[in-house]
Amino acid sequence: MRKKIVAGNWKMNKTRSEAAELIKGIVDGVSKTGVLNDEHIVIAPPFPFLEIAVSLTEKVPYISVAAQNCYSEPKGAFTGEISASMIASMGARYVIIGHSERRAYFNEDDLFLSKKVSAALQCNLIPILCCGETLPERKNENQYRIVQKQLENGLFMLNQDEIKNTVIAYEPVWAIGTGVNATPAQAQKMHAFIRQLLVKKYDAAVADEYTILYGGSCNAENARELFANPDVDGGLIGGASLKASDFTAIVNSF
Ligand code: PGA
Hints:
It is built from twelve helices and eight strands. It is α/β, with parallel strands linked by helices. Helix 3 (84-89) links the parallel strand 3 and strand 4 (94-97). The chain binds 2-phosphoglycolic acid (PGA).
């Protein structure tokens, strides 16, 4: 069964007490409305709040915790960096890799990201690899070429067994934080394209089971329409994951 996921990427927001309040609000909200077992909720707070996120969600089997980034090396003299094994040792299950903000502001390229993906898998973390084109790239009709290159170089070095433990998030850069989401048709077309790449590189069974998330101005108003597409298996939510009621409403759009 293809796993459906709604993941909240908090980015660099919240203090410790605000983080605790938000997590409690999400736990309360989703337990009130009831979530089916095959629906999965992932919350990605900043590193310092991973431990409290894990402890506050311990009793909720359908909520997992993610880090927003990890370093490519397992340990050593890399001041300020956080390894995948550290994240795993906190009890997190996922790690977001290659978010467009990391690519743009921290110059992370596909080769570097492929090393992070491998580092995450070695520690049994599920990498959520982000891909997506900028506005000029879409205007020039280069979006498919760009996404294909990002996936081929950042993810498709994995073998058949490894790829099954990863997730792709398609996040058009022009949709992130802008209030302009991809239309359901645009999202579906790209997700179907990505699934075809998985068929070609791996096989139809892998592609069919694979979870592909949409991200970029996804909110309680548009989530239902976006998630209704056959190849959109959930969302990676930024702004709308910072308020428990908004995030819960998106979870309930499934
Ligand atoms: P947004 O961000 O929902 O605020 O557009 C999505 C993301 O960056 O993951």
